[in-house]
Amino acid sequence: MSENVLIKKQVEPTSLLDKWKPHAELIAASFSGVLIAAGWMISKTGGESIAIALFIMAYVIGGFAKAKEGIEDTIENKELNVELLMILAALGSAVIGYWTEGAILIFIFAMSGALETYTLNKSHKEISSLMELQPEEAIRITNGREERVHVTELVVGDTILVKPGERIPSDGRIAKGQTTIDEAAITGESMPSAKMQGDNVFASTVNLTGSMTVEITKPSSDTLFQKIIELVQSAQSEKSPSQLFIEKFEGTYVKVVLAVVVLMMFLPHYLLGWSWNETFYRAMILLVVASPCALVASIMPATLSAISNGARHGILFKGGVHLENLSSLKAIAFDKTGTLTKGKPEVTDIIVKEGLSRDDVLLKVASIESHSNHPLANSIVNYAKETLGKELVHPESIEDVPGWGVKAHYAGEDWKIGKIAFVGREEGERFAEGAAMKLASEGKTTVFVERNGEVAAVIALKDVVREETKQAIDLLKSQGITTVMLTGDSEKTAKAISDESHVNSYIAECLPETKVEQLKELITTYGTVAMVGDGINDAPALATANVGIAMGEGTDVALETADIVLMKNDLPKIAEAINLSKRMNRIVKQNIVFSILIIMFLIASNFLQFLDLPFGVIGHEGSTILVILNSLRLLK
After folding, report:
1. Which of 1, 72, 421, 627 is the most exposed place for a label (fewest CB within 10 A)?
2. For 236-258, how does the pLDDT look when each residue is reduced to its tens digit (9 = 90+)?
3. Any bridge partners for residue 634, and if so which?
4. Which own/partner pairs from 428-436 qualify as long-range (CB within 8 Å, at least 24 positions apart)?
């Protein structure tokens, strides 16, 4: 069985238990919170033994996952961690009779860990979504005989048959036939590409019109589409600088606190003459007040508040680290199709031969094109229905000419609709009198119409820029952010869209690999860079960027790969998200400084014997409440 099939089987849930497994830690943390609340209320009515039993259950249910993780990481990495410190701090609280405080420490830490685990588990989903687009079988032709085989059995030099409507199983070169191929899975462009004998084709793209035989040029494990999957996996496995710093700080913090607590259990007795009871009492207070509960609360509530704020305004953040990174953005790269533009071609111009009725020509062209599934044909049909409001009439006969256009006999007239060469380049250029070149320079695609051997009209279509694009780009530029457009389109089309959308610069003719390379160069130049896209082909770039932003109407793969999703495709929300990120980072810094100062004050007061346990708990928990309240300001 292939590696890809194995990946797919591992990702897909096979039972109800597997389906809920990623949520188990979050459910346990939430249940422990319920037990803590119940125990606290019962303790107020005098049921101490029942309350303690509930707190013990909260300890076990809420702390099991983090305790297991802490122990396993300590054994594997031979390094102490915050998980162990939190568990010890909670147990220390219980030892000196403060069950509620210890249980709350467990709950806060378990909840933050559960949310982190849930987010990490989502990173597998886009892999299964990608795999659904990759064909598992192909029709191989051997000595004139057709046989259906698994794609992993194909080798370089094999010849396969690809019928209309099928996805191409592997990268190859057309050996016979001509067709039109939807390459959105690779290039992201809405315009299908005409392919002739000798042209290269890519795995997982869709053959739209004619049958063709393809000579395999790459094994299934080395296709361009497979590289997209590998790039997504590779980029998502890399840790952010913030995560690396936290892990490094964690080990040092735990070692220092535990070392000081151990010393506090012995040295004061011998050096300062404290009694053993006083020495142990002060050591337990130190373990409680030095626990990083306030530090954890400094970040998570602020992050959750900011994420809730964003969700309420149509911005979905998949984790606090992505929200944090937004504030340091220096450049943003945009995909063109479906991001800066609407993603669907629309009719923009119709030039009709003098003496002919524009509406009559449009009606007949739309009636003919209604029999085609080509995106340009669909756009012409939709435009005619919207502007004319008339019923389309079926032609007497129609013939599709793959790669060129369509022929039809309609109302006693012979019609041709397609490329300029299909109707005669010289005739077409003479009719358009340079208009076609002007339309092309504006990034528009031209469709020529021939009637009874004479060019009767030219129709221009364009993937138009979204109305809000200019506003969004101008807002970002006012914040000092460089904007770049990455597109698979030609240089001419890219320049036209770039000028219209106000981006600083553009890079044309980009394949997914090229986009990743350009993203890496931008990161080298600017530091922190975001990528905005909506297609399958954008997934590697979204994963490679410091922050990946997907359009809400984009493909499932883009939505799963991205770190941030604009639910209503509202590009100006990017500037709003950046401002929210800056606010969050300011509040987090305030919380961290405040909580560290409080911890230092409590530790010093405890050592000088000014601090009793109740006041230590009040100071410790009070600082936690204050930083949480400060964080809740982000909800507004």
Report:
1. 1
2. 454 545 445 656 676 677 788 88
3. none
4. 428/455, 428/458, 430/455, 431/353, 431/455, 431/458, 432/351, 432/458, 435/351
pLDDT, tens digit, for every residue of 389-411? 777 877 888 887 776 788 888 87
- Residue 172: how many other CB atoms lie within 10 Å: 26
Rounded to a whole number, what is the distance in angstroms from the first to the last CA of the chain? Answer: 53
Indicate the Cα dihedral angle 285, 291, 297, 299, nearest 10°: 150
Inter-CA distances, 357 with 83, 161, 364, Å: 78, 45, 11
Annotated catalytic residue: which of 182, 335, 400, 534? 335
316: β partners: 565
Please provide the size of the chain in residues.
Answer: 636
Strand partners, 352: 457
Q: Is the pTM of this model over 0.70?
A: no
E-strand ranges in 53-178 read 137-142, 145-150, 159-162, 172-176
Non-local (6+) Cβ contacts of 610 within 8 A are none
Q: What is the CA radius of gyration of the chain?
A: 32
Rounded to whole angstroms, the Cα distance separating 377 from 295 reads 60
Q: Is 313 exposed, middle or buried (0-12, 13-18, 19+ CB in 10 A)?
A: middle
Q: Tokens 């373990």 appear where?
A: 287
Which of 64, 63, 60, 56 lies closest to 39 in space, CA to CA?
56
Residue 22: predicted pLDDT: 53
Instruction: Assess whether 199 carries a catalytic annotation.
Output: no
DSSP state of 171: -
What is the token pair recorded at 506?
Answer: 């553009």
Nearest-angstrom CA–CA distance, 50 and 530:
53
The residue ranking higher by pLDDT, 374 or 125, is 374
pLDDT tier at 299, thresholds 50, 70, 90: confident
Neighbours of 355 (CB within 10 A): 6
Q: Please give the Cα distance from 208 to 369 (Å, whole number).
A: 15
Please give the average per-residue pLDDT across 525-535, as a whole number.
89
User: Which of 22-36, 245-259, 509-523 has the highest mean predicted lDDT (pLDDT)?
Assistant: 509-523
